[in-house]
Amino acid sequence: MSTLLPDLISGVVDYTVLEISAAVPLVKSGKLRALPVSSPARVPVIADVPTLAEAGMPGATLTGWVGLAAPAGTPPAVVDKLAQAALEFFDSPEAAAHFAQRGTTPYALGPKAFDGALANDQAQWKRVIALAGIQAE
Asked: Quick check: pTM over 0.85?
């Protein structure tokens, strides 16, 4: 287990970037103080926390996502069935409440759209790495 959160809460680490669903409960409990969020808009469950743009850094956004994957070679019918079940869940009021409470928003995609989103992310980060001159060591 990572020691990041205990070290952050205890003051060993001064600040970090956290995935919003990990940060929200700690901010709401008073264990952490939120700095600006990196999303394009404020997070409703912690609406008093400004965005990076509002804090003077326009264009600085970073959002995360979580996806479902199956092993290579999984039959398309199985992938379709799993995808349909996931999409139905994400469309439910229970899922909306669950994610809203954690400061996240479901962005449900089917398999083809998810493949496209992965390709777009890879291309974006490839450009960022090239612009920053980052090299593997």
From this structure: no
